[in-house]
Amino acid sequence: MYLAAPAPLSGRSHAKAHFGNPLRTPRLHRRLLSYILVLRNCTINPLPFERRGTGVRVLDDKGRIFGKLSIIDLLIIVVLVSLAGWFGYSMLGRNLRQDVAQRQQETEIVVVVSGIRPTTAEAIARGGKIFEFKTGAQIGEVVGVTTEPAKLWLVEGDGKWVQAESQDRVDAFVTIRGTARIGEHVITMNGVEIRVGASIGLKTKFAQFQGHVMMMDLDLGGTSQ
């Protein structure tokens, strides 16, 4: 029994038969076929909306700003506001300068240092800048030092207290000149509070001592002691 060989397929029929079953096609052909199917199913969505520009006219046909205010009116308002601001600043600045000038004054204070050795008084009398001991703030300069024998209280044999002059101790009166800032409730010299009767620690280049403010001489406020 003889079997006849099948007739060869044409080009179109061969391609159809070749791609008809993807499982029998070569690997490259299967990839191309998958890409074609994906591209056929893809769609491009348009933009959801479009931006549209809007314009606002600043000047109308009559030359008014936003249709309400003319340029001449605007210039007049600017000039008036500038004059008012300049006048207010000049008055406020002058009052502020006067207030600062009144609150900062040259002053002299006298600090009494009791019962120190004469050599310490001599070191203080050498003068120079003087500083508050704790903060190191300069409060002024030493302009004078006077001394007198220190007064000591002694007990006599009958138990009575008597005052006598010391032979090796002196009381020093140190005059300090500086700028005082006078506040409503306080007077300070470079941030250091100054009050008559208050204790204060001071130092110079040559000496260090503890004293009490005995007197304060203000140019506009008179003398306090």
Number of strands: 11
Please tell me what the overall shape is: elongated
Physical arrangement of strands within the biggest beta sheet? 3-6-5-4-9-10
Average pLDDT value?
Answer: 75
**C-alpha-based Rg, rounded:** 51 Å
Helix content range of the residues, please?
Answer: 25-40%
> Could you tell me the strand content as a percent range?
35-45%
- The poorly predicted ranges are 1-5, 9-19, 42-53
User: What would you call the structural class?
Assistant: alpha+beta
How can the largest sheet be summarized?
Answer: 6 strands, antiparallel, barrel
Number of domains: 2
Short description:
The protein is 29% helix and 38% strand. The chain is α+β, with helices and mostly antiparallel strands and 225 residues long.
Could you explain the architecture of this structure?
The structure is a single chain. Helix content is 29%, strand content 38%. The chain is of the alpha+beta class and 225 residues long. It folds into 2 domains: 64-101; 105-224, no CATH class. It has a 6-stranded antiparallel beta barrel with strand order 3-6-5-4-9-10. Strands 1-2 form a two-stranded antiparallel sheet. A hairpin with a 5-residue loop joins strand 5 (138-155) and strand 6 (161-182). Mean pLDDT is 75; it is low at 1-5, 9-19 and 42-53.
